[in-house]
Design goal:
Order of helices and strands: HHHEEEHHHHHHHHHEHHHHHHHH
Largest sheet: 2 strands, antiparallel
Shape: globular
Number of helices: 20
Distance between the termini: 43 Å
Strand content: under 5%
Length: 456
């Protein structure tokens, strides 16, 4: 609901104002609504990556604990910025931060190579991934500082193409989780399929028939239903929960980041994508809630908070952050923009980071329960990319750019063995992973053909 369409009484309500402190009884449920909407998405990338790497359940609990802590902390920074000189880290807008899905396919591919082909231990592979997350974040810091001059490099065609590639890569992961991630046909368990469909159907039914907070929390409700069914069917291992501490302070550098130059270029491309998502969500909030575009200072602050928050996440043993689109959607739908309301939700996340039992409960969840929840989320990433390309239009130039992007970027980028054995080193860096390849090829094609068009 746009701000301009509200009554005078609504406009005088603190809930619809950026500043001010509504009563805690009003603010807390609204903050909790945001946490319910993003809680599963905040943890799902960790499940996917740790499953690929073979990280132990105890170490996964540490990552989950840190993810909740850092997401809450970074959300606070978006709400109440930190000023350093003439730059502001944080947008001073109702932005909710969470673990980014955009990084998952690339981290998954890198992890499979490090563990499967190079034979590294899971914790060493994770440290290398976190090294990419830490040092790649400097690219988004530069985006935040120079965003005014960089916007022309990232038109909707580039962002849409990358989102489509991410969605395609994630769909196979989601489907694999949906059936319980069996490595061989003999390992397949029909109960996993039952759990996946139960979660999937619960989410669909809630989205079709429910409203308000229940509808916004459909994914969490679906997971709760699936979890209960998993307990009934003896599919939950409670030892992870029993062995987790009740209270623990999130500690940095449990996994010490390791810099590997050969994977850094992939993270550079991904931070560009993450930054573009944050720009889109920032503009979506200001347009829906305040009837205006985001100011340069707001956009720059949002990007800097995104980048610094992601680097803090790497130091605190977990994956990069980004602005969550579903929470921007809640702000746009309800019109409630008060920062204190969102801050109550951020406080819940930070506090949850001090109680490992909460992370252990999620860590013990069967893969099929998570798969039933995320398979539609992954599909929506693909659809959002299609929407962005459609919005740009299907004229001859755009069609050519998209054709080159997927033909060269995705096609060649999907042949890692051939690239490694036959391509020169500098092309190996570009085409070693499809998401990064699509991003780089799309930027080059867009710049090249737009220039030709302008000259003509």
């Amino acid at each position: 609901m746009a701000r301009s369409s509200r009554s005078q009484g609504d406009r005088n309500d603190l809930l619809y104002q950026l500043d001010g402190r509504p009563p805690l009884g009003k603010a807390l449920p609204l903050g909790l609504q945001h946490i319910l909407a993003m809680f599963t998405g905040n943890l799902a990338p960790i499940f996917v990556l740790t499953g690929v790497l073979g990280v132990t359940p105890a170490d996964r609990v540490i990552m989950i604990q840190c993810a909740m802590f850092v997401s809450g902390l970074t959300t606070f920074v978006q709400l109440y910025p930190i000023r350093i000189g003439k730059f502001r880290i944080g947008a001073r807008l109702p932005i909710v931060m969470g673990t980014a899905f955009a990084f998952v396919p690339t981290m998954q591919a890198i992890g499979e190579n490090l563990v499967g082909n190079e034979g590294l231990a899971p914790n060493v592979a994770l440290s290398i991934v976190l090294g990419g997350c830490l040092f790649g974040g400097f690219v988004e810091i530069l985006m935040g500082i120079f965003i005014k001059y960089l916007k022309r490099f990232f038109p909707p065609l580039v962002v849409g193409s990358v989102l489509i590639t991410i969605g395609i890569k994630l769909l196979s992961t989601g489907a694999n989780y949906f059936i319980g991630s069996p490595k061989t046909p003999e390992e397949f368990n029909p109960i996993n399929l039952f759990l996946g469909f139960s979660v999937f159907l619960t989410i669909i039914l809630i989205n079709k028939y429910a409203k308000g907070v229940l509808k916004a929390s459909s994914i969490l409700v679906g997971i709760i239903v699936g979890y209960i069914l998993a307990i009934v069917t003896n599919m939950v291992n409670f030892s992870t929960i029993a062995n987790a501490d009740w209270i623990s302070i999130p500690m940095p550098l449990y996994f010490k980041p390791i810099l590997r130059w050969d994977i850094l270029i992939s993270f550079i491309a991904l931070y560009i994508v993450s930054g573009l998502e944050t720009i889109g969500n920032t503009s979506g909030i200001t347009i829906a809630a305040f009837d205006r575009d985001a100011t340069p200072e707001e956009t720059s602050g949002a990007l800097l908070a995104d980048a610094v928050g992601s680097q803090v996440a790497a130091v605190f043993n977990t994956l990069p952050n980004t602005a969550f689109g579903q929470n921007a959607g809640i702000v746009a739908m309800t019109g409630i923009v008060n920062r204190f309301c969102i801050a109550t939700g951020a406080a819940i996340l930070v506090l949850a980071g001090f109680f490992p039992k909460i992370g252990a409960v999620f860590s013990a969840m069967p893969n099929s329960v998570l798969g039933g929840a995320v398979i539609t989320v992954f599909a929506m990433i693909l659809l959002n990319g299609i929407k962005m390309i459609a919005k740009a239009g299907f004229n001859d130039i755009n069609n050519l750019i998209v054709g080159i992007t997927f033909g060269l970027g995705y096609g060649v980028g999907n042949l890692p063995a051939a690239i490694k054995s036959r391509f020169p080193v500098f092309l190996q860096y570009i085409f070693q992973e499809p998401v990064a390849a699509v991003c780089i090829v799309s930027i080059i094609a867009s710049l090249l053909f737009r220039t030709f068009q302008e000259e003509a």
